[in-house]
Amino acid sequence: MITPGYVRTMAAYNAEMNRRTYAAAALLTDAERREERGVFWGSLHGTLNHLLWGDRIWMSRFAGWPKPVGIKQSARLYDDFSELTAARVEADADMSAWAERIDQDWLDQDLVWFSGSAQRELRQPRAFLVTHLFNHQTHHRGQAHALLTHFGHDPGDTDLPLVLPQRTMA
Fold it and tell me: In 3-state terms, what secondary structure has residue 121?
């Protein structure tokens, strides 16, 4: 069962991994961050933009955040890396604050939304969708990690118990 403690733990993990990823990405040149590398969103810069987009689209459904542009434009949210970095830091802080407010009753309810990808209304349990939010981040951040490693900049351990060694799910 997904609990409020799980949501808070994963929000903390997400924020820390984003901090590490962006710190490593900042060591690259802009040309390196934008280099087409054959990943789904093209480049490291595109992947980081898409990750922020994914958080924003789900948080628009979960917490009323402004809905971002369509998915096809998601790799181009921010052209400037420093603006992208600031937006990422703000989103992580806002997601962590949201996670602190989550309760089990909210998680146990369904969410109904119109999916632009599926082009229809969908209904799923919120707990399942919150799991998807964090899984999506991990999936694309894994791509970013591989790209950073290719360029010789390792953002460090990604294993949850090593990133948040003292964390509990309570």
Answer: strand
